[in-house]
Amino acid sequence: MAALPPYASTGQKVWHYSYLVICAAIFFFLIAPILIIIPLSFNAENFFTFTPEMLALDPEGYSTKHYRDFFTNPDWQVPLWNSLKIAPVATFLSVALGTLAAIGLSQPHVPFRRAIMAILISPMIVPLIISAAGMYFFYSRIGLQGTYWGVVLAHAALGIPFVIITVTATLVGFDRSLTRAAANLGAGPVRTFFKVQMPLILPGVVSGGLFAFITSFDEVVVVLFVGSAGQKTLPWQMFTGLREQISPTILAAATVLISISVVLLVTLEVLRRRSERLRGMSPG
Amino acid sequence: MNITRLLTASTALVATATIASAESHVEMANEMTIVSWGGAYQESQLKAYVEPYQEMHPEVSITWDESSAEAVAKLRAQNEAGNVTWDLVDATAADAMRLCDEGLAMEIDPDEDLAPAPDGTPASEDFGEEMLVSDCFIPQIAYSYTFGYRNDVAEWDGKEPTSVCDVFDTETFPGQRSLEKRPHNNLEWALICDGVPYEEVYDVLETEEGQDRAFAKLDTIKDETIWWSSGADTPQLLADGEVVFGSTYNGRLFSLIVEQDQPVNMMWDTQSYDLDGWIIPEGLDEASLARVKDFLYFATDTQRLADQAKYISYGPARKSSAPLVGEHAELGIDMAPHMPTNPENSKGAFVQNYEWWADYRDDLDAKFQAWLAQ
Amino acid sequence: MTDSATTPPSQPMAVLPGGEVTEDGPMLAADGRPLKHSLNRALRREKLRAFLLVSPLLIFILVAFVAPIAEMLFRSVENQIVSETLPRTVVALREDQNLPEEAPGEPVYEALYTDLFIAAEYKSHTRLGSRLNYEQTGLSSLFRGTGRDVGRFDTDIYTDQFIEAEPALEDPVAWSNWMADEEIRAALPQTADVWDAWVKLTVEANEDDPLEEDVEDFVYAALYRDLANGAAPAGFPDVDVSGFETVSIKALFEESDEDWVDPQIWQVIETYSPAYTDGYFLNSIDMMNGPDGDAQMRPDDERIYLKLFWRTMWMSLAITFSCIVLGYPIAYLLSTLPLRSANVLMILVLLPFWTSLLVRTSAWKVLLQQQGVINDTLVWLGIVSDANRLTLINNATGTMIAMTHILLPFMILPLYSVMKTIPPSYMRAAKSMGANDWTAFWRVFFPLSIPGIGAGSILAFILSIGYYITPEIVGGTSGVFISNRIAYHISSSLNWGLAAALGSILLALVLTLYWLYDRIVGIDNVKLGG
What we know:
heterotrimer; B: alpha/beta; D-Maltodextrin-Binding Protein, domain 2; 14 helices; 16% strand; globular; disordered N terminus; C: mainly alpha; 4 domains; two-stranded antiparallel sheet; 25 helices
């Protein structure tokens, strides 16, 4: 599909190019909302609207005031820091516990494997509003509601299925003779894990961790219930913003986050290529 | 039950209570968590009374929690868990009534807990019965649900709507409308525009036929209506030209028209009054309660309520505050004409019956949602 | 793939097929134990090790997630509030014969008087009113209003007559002595019960000393009933109550609010008096407990939940389907491109995934509304006229578009990971044997990619069935899901029982799907990229 063979018929050519057009259209659908956000975040007005001045490309219609607001207003800075304090810890918990459990689950003999798997995946399949309400009542009772650790634990629970799924997937293709070889050569289980297993399942762990991180970083329903003023996260601030006073600062915040994601994704890709080179695998 | 044990316990309890009350004054907590709505409204509270109070009492630190929209649910869960973390909650009158019903809010005595007017009129009279709608409710402001309309709609041929019933007139005033996604106000407006006099609205709405009549009236504009659920929706829809009419809080329209300078006009006809105020959660410890009461006494006095009107166009709940309403803090315009309580604006105002809604809310909400889903 | 993880791989030690028993006896391991035991022990150890690795997370999830949800869902049947607030009334109602034709007899009202008096002191009567108002409109104000009146009921005629007949009956200390006497208590059961309640109330709610307070009227009213029944315990003042002036408590209640003699009201209280109720579940499938206690459908104008469940299901299906239609070509393209270009394009897939859901939804609002970007562009291109702009938002279309966008990456990632495992040589082989492009794709590639479709579909479907923020913002009235109503009942109407019942049904649906999925595809086959 990548390139058309020179002997392709006219029909094949037509089909090939229309297929590419369809794909381009779908990609456009995927990023259209994001492309909309960026110009609107430079809106000089306080609404999510393309003003006539903006459409006429009049510099008057544009302004960076929403970015100034985002970077100077404590209403935005405090939630940003809260998010940055909560997400990594929740991710760490998810990844540590999740990886351990995924390794356990990949052992040949695990009693009640299906049932355990279902329980561990449950945070992903239970509708969020039910989880949020349930955790809210329960955490209130045990004094975790409205605390930092309450939010961290709730978010860790939500992130775990992603870690389990990605790490299990890498372990499915894992060659067990490698650990046996390591054991045979005298390495203890811990050493085997860190020296042999870990480097090989690392891609799964990293991608699960990223999913867990984004789950926490973009989560609004649960934090709205389990958190209180002290744990107000960025999505929470956006949610109140959308509900109480629409301001394109939300879009400025989103643009900043998108830029960070792009940098992150590109870095990951570069790192991946580098590691592939190091491991001597062909780039495909 | 072991009565003897209970009696002994009670004696001990009474004894400690006597000792406690014998002490001259109670220590006041220096931390206070205030729950409010966020946005411009919270800002007005901050400027008008929280900052002045903190100037007087620099030792007090205040945490804001912008959870008023979920206040009833959260407070109920906190109370169930026996772990109330809020000291003072801003709530609408209807929510306050429900919190009071649920035993989640403390009953107050206006004359004892609130400051009298400068001329000595006791608080209960200064606020008046129409403001003190629940035993737990300490009113701050009167706001209203009213309509804004675009003043640049070509299809209207220069005609301007003057009455709430023009919202139902899609012939003369074509275009989309936005109404709130709940039965309150909408059913009342529908009946009023169907010819029911103000004072009979709730009697009619109690009957099956009356409800059908209200829904039938709403049916006439159902296809042209966008239903909003958050206060920011209607201003955005009006600014986009997505709707030509929209109901929302009058303060939102003020900011849209005066502060943002959008081509929108305000229609005060049949504005529906609502109240917003404080409640004190049940179950505060003594020190927190003492601090909250001290703050409230200050924050709801005549001058403070009048000051709030400098920052937002909501009417102070005290009669004695009205003459003190001055100019907008930044724009320097006279605020009185923008108050829902201004005599010129309140001529055709409609007053919601909270007690009635407390009964009919569940039933009518189910019917309203079923009607929406049809 | 599932198989390799669930079935044990071959053991490192060679074991004779068929069994370990040879002619010379059991086969032995190196340490001299029977090999079978040794293997079993190793197996047990391995099981234990696996379990130990899993257990920290299992415990964590059970405590931090499963327990809260179980507790939440339990609220859907819980209904102790009626019998806790009105304990005596509930008992009296059970013995009453008048219902359902007419209002209950005097004993029920007497019990209600005591219960409501106490409840009003604890301020729990309004909470009960709110609870029962879910079942019958008007009960909220009925309880609130009468709760205010009940302290002022004219029942002091019993108090006055007793004190006149025997002044010692005014003394709370004497009362507490009598009430400590087991024989008197046994002879005056109603009085003893009500006295205990009064003492508890005085201490707990009012924080007073019962030995210094005037005994409340309702205690004397109970005493009158006990004595009128012919009780004459030794050690208690002998008062002849036959000539006492009496008052009908029922009439007092009727005076406070005539709804109290409406049999329908009582029917509701009786129906909801057990500690557990099916009422919330009935409500969540548009049914209710009818006047005669049988389950029946609600009136037409109140039916909504079945419709919402149905809508949630079919719209989630439609969203899943559009995810397949849009996701498949993209995944196919990515899987056939060289890895480097595929990874760059993958960033386009992941970018929306990493962008806040709230922001993406708001962006769709800007794009889709009538004065929005898409309509403006179409009008500018002359495809639609200015007067007939398309309605793309605040309806089911809006929800479909925005949700498809949000869930598309969840479809593309598993599809891509499955397609990457299909060797391109299969297609080439098919073509070399004479298949044209379409046949080769349809007969060879597509069947092999079905597991990916399965994985993506289940993920998209399960996630979409529980969404509520996006439908809330772009769904208008025809595009909202059942989760929106659950959220409403949790945060606005406070009808947590109904929210829990709706949630239980939704969860049951999702779990059934999950189970089916696990049966058909296997949960191990879900891959999120990588």
